[in-house]
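not sure who needs this but someone in the group chat was asking about Aminotransferase class I/II-fold pyridoxal phosphate-dependent enzyme from Christiangramia aestuarii so here u go. i didnt clean anything up, its just raw.
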Amino acid sequence: MPEVTGSKLPGNKTSIFSVMSKMANEYKAINLSQGFPNFETDQELKDLVTRAMNNGFNQYPPDIGVQALREQISRKVESLYAKHYDPDKEITVTSGATEALFNAISAFVHKGDEVIVLKPAYDTYEPTIELNGGKPVQIQLKGQDYQVDWEEVREAISPKTRMIIINTPHNPTGTVLSSEDMLDLENILKGTDIILLSDEVYEHLIFDGLEHQSTSRFPGLAERAVVCASFGKTFHNTGWKTGYCLAPRELMKEIRKVHELTVFSVNHPMQIAYADYLKDPQHYLELSGFYQQKRDLFLNLIKDSRFTCTPSSGTYYQLLNFSEITSENDVNFAERLVKEKGLAAIPVSVFNINQKDNSQLRFCFAKTDETLEKAAEILCNL
């Protein structure tokens, strides 16, 4: 057996999501850690998948995605953000948004390139950069409300900067970028060759009358941006692993080269089903209201607890500050919460520079009302 030497990712550890979900299973805990709903996807959508299978859509689809689905994506994006993407040249269906992110980084980041990453950040960004020989340049979001210091971003740009990654609505904090944020970024990138990778998987989960400021809305950003999106996050079926990316045709040409070599194509019957399902815009337009009700229920249930928070502005995550309960670090508290109280959450420090600990845990509220009630009872008794 060959000896394994020279790991390409020597410092990479098991994902915190896997760690906490494994602990939740081991201790039979309520799992509000990993970001997936514990309720079923729409029966109409499942029936559409079954129909697609029965109609013979069971072999390889086109590698870039089913034509009908790419056309529906183009219509959706144009109706929401007034930006047209050519279904044939500028849209590719991927195996979840994570593949889209991987493809974009792999297509453009060369050895020695720098990529600016705003922390806390989804934990696949940096390993993928490193896997391609790039160097993550980390910038910590500011305060307990996690705001971007755009002047710090500007100062971090060097001749080696190849890419900047943004995420809005933001995982794990639930914050959203404003139009002013996007205009600041547009101004910073003007006149550069920097590629913008925009992770927008929670685009339809945004609350309190706020509006998602997609990169696609801003011409100076869209011309250099790869936008990644997820059907799994949108339609409560993360296990179907179907997403897509949008990009100008010259960028997309390179992304498709990587896509072809990684997965070649994506689940055929799911694509046929999504193409039909997207014909009714209410299937995604109603989601903000649906998840705001979940957020409001969860926060109302814990209003008498010793946790403090700012209500999440987007995603289906809520940060709770536990500094009035214990002085222990967030990783230890999260582990104790699983083992002793039967409730799993995600410690936020693992996503921060130098594991900066703000005494916060992330809870997923994409759960049934019954699950949220049981979780809240535990939180209120701490």
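also Residues 16-41+285-380 form a domain with the Aspartate Aminotransferase, domain 1 fold (CATH 3.90.1150.10). if thats useful
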